[in-house]
Amino acid sequence: MNREQTRCFTVQKVLLVVMGILLVFVSVWSYITEQEHRDVTNLEFFQSLDYEDGLDVVVRTLDRFPLQYAATLGQDGDPQIRPIEFKFETDGVLYFDTVEFYTSYEEMKAHPYIQICVCDPETRTYLRLGGRVNFTKDEDIVSRCFAESPILTEQFGEARDMVVAYYLTEVRAEFRSFSRGLPQMRYTLPNPYDTQEVQ
What we know:
This protein is α+β, with helices and mostly antiparallel strands and 199 residues long. It has two domains: 1-38; 42-189, Electron Transport, Fmn-binding Protein, Chain A (Pnp Oxidase, Chain A, Roll), CATH 2.30.110.10. 39% of the residues lie in helices and 31% in strands. Strands 1, 2, 3, 4, 5, 6, 7 and 8 form an eight-stranded antiparallel β-sheet that branches. Strand 3 (88-90) and strand 4 (93-99) form a beta hairpin. Helix 5 (139-148) packs across helix 6. 19% of the residues are buried.
């Protein structure tokens, strides 16, 4: 083998080694990315929560299960339940919204307390929270509600002035599960708008 052939053969070996290293790197990067973005089961999700941080448990659970059910006291004195959608949390304050012509708006004005529940049948786990409803038409808060909800934007994008945001004070939450290894927790979640100490 002459010198030129030896050099070509060496270059080919170096290129194969570099390509092999690159292939290993891409495979490892792809695996890590897939692990980071793969959907976790609901059980894995609940196992990942920090149960010492009640606000985090509540917010992450409401985000994970975007359809919640809320109970209000109806105008006829009977309980009323309906689906709602948690919008966002800022500085420990949980925000939701309603619409001026909804019956629930009148119910919450008359009796400003609400109970919210979300349940996961896969793990037989539920989160229940309740508190005092405080309405706001603050434009920044209402805009954030729209930004967080394509459904709200689709339904009321042209009638934004009818949307009323609300936040909860005097918040209590309860986390319960019938799955082995998940805790049973109760939380009081004070926030800057609480005007009285929650008993």
